[in-house]
Amino acid sequence: GMNLFKGTPGEWIASEADAYAGAVDVDSYAAAWCVCTCWGDGSDEGKKQAEIHARAIAAVPKMIAALIEAEKRILSDSIKIDGEWGDPRNPSAMPVELDMVRCAIAAALGE
User: Fold this and answer.
1) What gap in Å lies between CA 111 and CA 109, rounded to an integer?
2) Where does the pLDDT of residue 39 fall: very low under 50, low under 70, confident under 90, or very high at 90 and above?
3) CA pseudo-torsion sign 82, 85, 89, 92
4) Which of 26, 54, 103, 107 minimizes the number of CB atoms within 10 Å of its CB?
């Protein structure tokens, strides 16, 4: 089975110069307490790109949680995918989306 995300607990947010666990720092030296720092190239456009990257990284814990819930939902036989009912007892009948979700979860968790 898939393991749960073991990164820094709590909500991550993209932040400029806030040094705390869960921050995805944008273009500053607050990195000692941050999940990571996204650096720009010193230009306004570079800073915008760093902010875009920080927001995407900050969303990772929520995206993993959503993917895990999607996997559970796909595995249930209570939904239709492309007009066909999924059947957890028959893996060949499972939708291709299940493999996509599982691959994304595994990649995010390093499995």
Assistant:
1) 6
2) confident
3) negative
4) 107
Cα–Cα dist 39/51, whole Å: 9
* Distance separating alpha carbons of residues 24 and 56, to the nearest angstrom: 9
The model's pTM is: 0.69
* Strands, sheet with 13-15, edge to edge from the N-terminal-most edge strand: 13-15, 23-26, 36-38
Q: Which residues pair with 15 in a beta bridge?
A: 25
Q: How far apart are CA 42 and CA 63, in angstroms?
A: 30
Nearest Cα to Cα of residue 8 among 54, 70, 58, 46:
58
State how far the Cα of 42 lies from the Cα of 16, in Å rounded to an integer: 14
Which residues, in sequence order, are CB contacts of 88 under 8 Å at separation 6+?
A: 75, 76, 77, 94
Distance CA 5, CA 11 (A): 12
CA distance 58 to 69: 19
